[in-house]
Amino acid sequence: MEVVILPDAEAVAALAARTVAAELRRAERPVLGLATGSSPLGIYAALRGIVEAGELSMDGVRGFALDEYVGLPVGHPESYAEVVRREAVVPLGMDPALVRVPDGAAEDIEAACADYERAIAEAGGVTVQILGIGGNGHIGFNEPTSSLASRTRIKTLAAATRQANARFFAEADGASVPTHCLTQGLGTILEAGALVLVAQGEHKAEAIRQAVEGPLSSRWPASALQLHRRATVIVDEEAASRLELADYYRDTVAAKPDWQRV
């Protein structure tokens, strides 16, 4: 994977957005993989600037969200269907009819997961997948011990993940975070054409260290990115603070010829 270390969160978001835009422009049938949580918000804001500048058109771009809570009512402000609509679809001018989110309200969860996998395949696969990372190393809601070959399925959320997300629900209506979710599996994520993972802050430093430099392990699900041929990890200085090879990553990026730069 390529690791890029930048001074701050604003620089991380700007480069990630340019990388995503470049991937979408190159694709004949562009499909954007949409992540939720706080990490990708800066990417969507920067992408909006690129779209408004006329440097990227989202006309006809399909979208697939990584995950969704199970059991939230339709329209709940913290359902990921609503978050994706609010933070990405509307600001970027995407066609809502072309954007799908796993159906966390489905009566037949197994069938809904199979249908989601089928829809991604019928769209030609995800062109570029945006990713954040949890403090325990999860991507999507693939919590520790998730199979590296997993597909879209129901998962139980780790206590640490529910605690990290509790602030959003407190702001919404005081309800507790759901205990289960639907998430694309690690195997599904690894089939995307390109992966762009961002992380900001010292609290993500250990997860980044394990994902980039640790062994391939289900204990740190994001380490699965080591198997992907086009994974880019863009982090700020704090998130990079535990990387043993930080200077090497800086030198590698600095040495890239201009034609390889986004």
UniProtKB/TrEMBL annotation:
One of its GO terms (cellular component) is cytoplasm. Its EC number is 3.5.99.6. GO terms for biological process: carbohydrate metabolic process; glucosamine catabolic process; N-acetylglucosamine catabolic process; N-acetylneuraminate catabolic process. Coiled coil: none annotated. Keywords: Carbohydrate metabolism, Hydrolase. NCBIfam families: nagB, PRK00443.1-4. PANTHER family: GLUCOSAMINE-6-PHOSPHATE ISOMERASE. This is Glucosamine-6-phosphate deaminase.
